[in-house]
Specification:
By secondary structure, the protein is α/β, with parallel strands linked by helices. The protein is built from nine helices and six strands, in the order H-H-E-H-H-E-H-E-H-E-H-H-E-E-H.
Length: 260
């Protein structure tokens, strides 16, 4: 993707077009992770059932995934369903699973058209069997795509991931004295991927909610009051522009925001 391509995609005179013109394509984050929060509050503000907020959030997912691919990001990770979300009312969980199936069926062709590869991180084996089938098909059909990697975190917990990686190391008989950060990272769900450079959270909450706890050690965090169903391409561009203005210190000397 080039600046010209992005400008051609954005409607003339739109906020997206103005923001796109400011993006430095040489300083894009390689990996953007998003905590999608605020569906319930969005619905409550409109005196609607919570499930309507989840339905409205699908449009935000579509916009962010397609915009991220157009920008040329290497990896996008969306926090879709946490291990804690099973505590929600059974009817709400059922709706979330149904929306996930619907998204996969309707958006698979868009993923293909944008050369996006789908990957599930978490414990999908605990999801309903019909949802697992849709996920398997989506991953298989996009496996050969060479564009952006789209991680969807399902039945995911950061602590559980670290525990599972530790157990995997033990099963492999790895000597603890030889287990450094690189080798441990290779045991995580995101093995082989760059760690997130930018973590976005909607709804104004100032917490990471058990998301990618190992991987976000040095991520830049951008929080917006915007509720997830209202989040769109322009907000993603705003987050990236803010990221590009920061100096990344990694606990020591200042380093420029570059990738590659």
């Amino acid at each position: 993707m080039s600046l010209q391509d992005l400008l051609a995609w954005a409607p003339a005179g739109s906020p997206e077009q103005a923001l796109a013109g400011e993006v430095d394509f040489d300083r894009l984050p390689a990996h953007v992770a998003v905590i999608m929060d605020g569906n319930g509050r969005w619905a409550a503000q409109r005196h609607l059932p919570r499930v309507e907020g989840h339905r409205a959030g699908i449009d935000a997912v579509r916009d962010v995934v397609e915009t991220s691919a157009r920008l040329g990001l290497d990896v996008l990770t969306l926090y879709a369903f946490s291990v804690e979300n099973w505590k929600r009312p059974r009817a709400e969980v059922a709706v979330l699973m149904g929306l996930l199936k619907r998204y996969l069926r309707l958006e698979l062709e868009n993923l293909q058209a944008n050369d996006i590869r789908l990957q599930v991180i978490g414990r999908p084996e605990d999801l309903p069997v019909d949802v697992q089938r849709e996920l398997d098909e989506g991953q298989e059909r996009t496996r050969a795509n060479g564009g952006m990697l789209f991680n969807i975190a399902l039945n995911y917990g950061g602590r559980a991931e670290i525990v599972e990686a530790t157990r995997r190391a033990m099963r492999q008989g790895l000597d603890p004295s030889e287990l450094d950060e690189q080798r441990f990272g290779d045991l995580l769900y995101t093995a082989g991927q760059p760690d997130p450079d930018l973590l976005i959270r909607t709804s104004g909450e100032m917490r990471v909610s058990n998301f990618l706890l190992w991987q976000i050690a040095y991520a830049e965090i951008w929080v917006t009051e915007m509720l997830w169903p209202d989040f769109r391409a322009r907000h993603l561009l705003q987050a990236i522009l803010d990221y590009q203005k920061r100096e990344r210190r990694y606990g020591g000397i200042t380093r420029p925001v570059v990738v590659g």
